[in-house]
Q: What sequence folds into this?
């Protein structure tokens, strides 16, 4: 079963938007939010959580019939 991914948006009183990605490890979070960030405007800062530094999990398919 796939792990749930979530993007949390926060808009402060000045209209500044911050995003926090949950449930995604490694640098994939930046790829996930790239289009959103471009649509919102200029990124003024970026804070990486500890999840960012965990290597992304990859799925590997192994053929047992020798192919």
A:
């Amino acid at each position: 079963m796939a792990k749930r991914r979530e993007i949390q948006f926060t808009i402060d009183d000045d209209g500044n938007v911050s995003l926090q990605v949950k449930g995604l490890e490694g640098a994939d979070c930046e790829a996930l939010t790239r289009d959103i960030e471009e649509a919102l405007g200029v990124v003024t800062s970026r804070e990486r959580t500890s999840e960012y530094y965990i290597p992304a999990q990859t799925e590997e398919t192994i053929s047992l019939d020798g192919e």
About this structure: The CA atoms of residues 34 and 62 lie 32 Å apart.
